[in-house]
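INFO  loader      accepted 1 record
INFO  loader      residues=950
INFO  predictor   begin
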Amino acid sequence: MIVRLSVRNGTLESTMTEDLSPAQRYAAARKRAAEQATALASFREMYDFGLDPFQIEACQALEAGKGVLVAAPTGSGKTIVGEFAVHLALRQGKKCFYTTPIKALSNQKYNDLCRRYGTAKVGLLTGDNSVNSDAPVVVMTTEVLRNMLYAGSQTLLGLGYVVMDEVHYLSDRFRGAVWEEVIIHLPESVTLVSLSATVSNAEEFGDWLDTVRGDTEVIVSEHRPVPLFQHVLAGRRMYDLFEEGEGHRKAVNPDLTRMARMEASRPSYPDRRRGRSMREADRERERRQRSRIWTPSRPEVIERLDAEGLLPAITFIFSRAACEAAVQQCLYAGLRLNDEEARAKVRSLVEERTASIPTEDLHVLGYYEWLEGLERGIAAHHAGMLPTFKEVVEELFVRGLVKAVFATETLALGINMPARSVVLEKLVKWNGEQHADITPGEYTQLTGRAGRRGIDVEGHAVVLWQRGMNPEQLAGLAGTRTYPLRSSFKPSYNMAVNLVEQFGRHRSRELLETSFAQFQADKSVVGISRQVQRNEEGLEGYKASMTCHLGDFEEYARLRRELKDRETELARQGAAQRRAEAAVALERLKPGDVIHVPTGKYAGLALVLDPGLPAGRSNGHRGFDHQDGPRPLVLTAERQVKRLASIDFPVPVEALERMRIPKTFNPRSPQSRRDLASALRSKAGHIVPDRHRRARAQAADDREIARLRAALRAHPCHGCNDREDHARWAERYYRLLRDTSQLERRIEGRTNTIARTFDRIVALLTELDYLRDDEVTEHGRRLARLYGELDLLASECLRAGVWEGLNPAELAACVSALVYEARVSDDALAPKLPSGKAKAALGEMVRIWGRLDALEEDFRISQSEGVGQREPDLGFAWAAYMWASEKGLDEVLREAEMPAGDFVRWCKQVIDVLGQIQAAAPPEGSTVPKTARKAVDALLRGVVAYSSVG
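INFO  predictor   done
INFO  writer      dumping tokens
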């Protein structure tokens, strides 16, 4: 037997010649010919590496006409499936839209596709960039595609495929709804390719896609092409997080567990010098002297990774300022990761990429310090950096000319910057509200960058040792793959008018009920529904067991229940009345009153030292903030000083006698307590308190109770010998009926939630004359062109003419309030505002928002549920005004007190909304469209104009 082995496209093909019959050889030849004729075969020829099984499976499903959901780890190559969709579209003469969540990723994918297919066939649309938008393949942000769908753009004609990269973004509470809008509204003829990080509920998401998009294949791959090893760096040693246990099971390294115990048992030594805290460096030095376990400094970490051959590395630090500080620390430590040849390459590339930046802006942007770090192979990467600077860092890192990057977690969101190692300084991050532990999903996302396919044999995740670290907890983070996809979909005002215009109210409501949010909510009630069904079966059984031959026992049981409920209610009212009377009696007490505590641990004779009245009701004495009424401080006859509560006085209390409390009395002195308690017993020990007579029960005189008792006695079932047996079954019946009603209310609260929110939004828009039944008014058509969080506020401002007569800089300042949100809310100082018309217009915008906020409250539209209009933030108005007034970058950044990257990003968002306002404003009789166009030109200059992404 002769076996011919040939390696083709990375796959092993074996052809057995002599053992096959002519018919078998003919069949094998036909099969090979059929495979060669597929689009996948020609696609595989374009790559110099073989495809993984999950990639082949997904591509075959696509070629078979199915939609696909591919969930695979970061760096596993799932974008290959998206590129195959591009290949299929070009082969079939159709269009393909490749959507990404962020502009930086769109730019990156655009460049990749241009290199493969040429610039003539590839376009780019990112809101502020439009390149060859009529090309058969267009890369765009997801928002751009959503806007196209609502506008009914002609660009959609001939669309065959849509790739949604990083589709797990639909969990994002700010932007996630856009992904669902696109998935729901895409024409049925379009094949959807969804690419996601590894999520634990991919099958659930796939079921939903199958429901709304038709036949969808779910392909899940847990396999990392480059294996990941987990480490902890403590002092000078790098410890493996796991070691092989019995049966190849991973166990936490016992060395780490032992270190954690040692750290926990060793006391910390707070040191004070001249009344001030010990310097951080001195504390660290002393700790090192006491222990070989410490958290290594940032330069030490990089040096250690370099020595171990683990560079390039990305160190995730959850703070922009700390990322910049880390670079400076490495520079001060004298770190140099590049040789002279690499330094020259870095300088050449940086100068080429930044040639368009005006020289006077370089110093303001920190260019020279940034360049020094790059030449040494060290850089920061965060959202506060100028987009051009971030792009350069990304390019140098991919080329291996930057070997250590200190980044915030935004780097983990799709940018193609794989490293050999990933370092996590801490396992806690600020989530916008508080410092919280990172989740297993976030840990997986961050460490997923470690290991470059085709370059590294293995990737490494390194966590720095911190005092108080729990190795078991870290192992749980590293070993858990729980990252569920949760919908953040909520209807908006813009969405409502666009849907009603296209489909009418009824059809729009039905469409919204197909959202993933509603799908998940409905799925969560399945278990409750089953319980309701079981309860209903039980109710039938109980009903049969309480049947009485003398009459309707259900009616008799209802009378008994009504009687019991009435008696319980009257008893509750009586108890509340007694508590109120007791509280009133306590409020009358004064220091020196001798009382008898009726019940409780301290029952008996007592002297009131302080009446303990609630704040504001002190009757001349110091009040306390007691939520449950007076809490008198007393001295008991047994010499104890205690503050009592209302529970110790179930009945009203009266003063039996009066005593003078010596001014020298000290409740903390045993002698003082003994002397005063002795005087108390002498003064009032012989007094016998009056027994409190309980008032006649209300039930005795209640007419309703008398009527119910009479009805019971007259009922036929009252004379049944088995009456109490039937009654027990009836009690079970009513208890189960109550539980079932509660479950049904829970189901009602979870089903149709999206549609009910939509109904409330439609009702408010109808009130404001944006909608009239299924008709969208002129105001509604204006709102349909405005996208963003404050869409309705923008529309109302246009409607009220708030921005008429403003100059471009003033309009830019006003529009900034619609997009800007401070990273940290700061109510300490009012923001600086431009004077004159702009200030008046901003004030009117806030007043209109106040009116809308009150209206939303009336219609039960809640911002806490992610629906509604937040208050406009005026914090960027002065910066936008200055920049549009042609002030210099140095002056504007100094006044704005924000990093250049943030400034550019907010300017681009203002430009985006100005474009929407220009399109939405009345073309005649309004100054706004012309002013908006001029404001865009005024903002789009200098540092904003030459930043290709934002």
